[in-house]
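HUMAN: I'm a chemist; might I ask for a sequence paired with its C-alpha cells?

ASSISTANT:
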Amino acid sequence: MKTKTACFTGHRHLLQDKRDTLSLLIDQAVSEAYQNGYRRFLCGGALGFDTLAAKRIILSRSIHPDIKLTLVVPCENQALHWSKEDQAVYRDIREQADEVIILSPVYYQGCMQTRNRYMVDHSSLCICYLFSFRGGTAYTVRYASFCNIEIINLAMDHSQTDITLRENQCNSTFISR
C-alpha cells in the first residue's frame, strides 16, 4: 500500500565518523514513520546509505516485528563488481528482506533510475541522505518532490528549515532532523 510505504535514497559514500550519528537519525525517522502507520520500507540495496538503512530496518524489527523490508533491486547482478565483503553484506540483507523485487535480470543503461522511480512511485514518504545536488540521490529526491512525496532529509543541519533543489525548476521544502 503506497500510502504507508516509505523509501530510502542516499549517497554511496558515507564518512566513517558520521555513520553512528546517521544510524541514530535513520532509527528516529523510522520510529516516527512507524508511529504514523508506516510498516513497509523500500530500499535499493546499493552500497552506502542504502546498506545502512536496510541494516537499521532489520534491527528495528526487535522493537517493531511487523516492519517489512522490501529490496528493490535494479538488476539481478547488481553486486557483481563489489568487493567480497560488500557482496557478503548484500547477500545477508537480501536473505533477511521480507521481499526482493528484481526489476531486470541484467544491467542496462538507466536501470538505477528505473529502480529509483519505482521506489518513489510506490511510496508516500522518502527518507533521504542528500548533501550533493548531483547524481542518483539528487535525481530521486527531485522526482519525489515532483510527485509531491513527503521528504525527510537526514543530511540537513538541524538549524536549517528548508532548502531548494537548485538544479531543477521544482521547489521543495524538506523536513530537517
Q: What stands out?
A: The helical segments are 19-35, 49-60, 84-96, 111-121, 136-146.
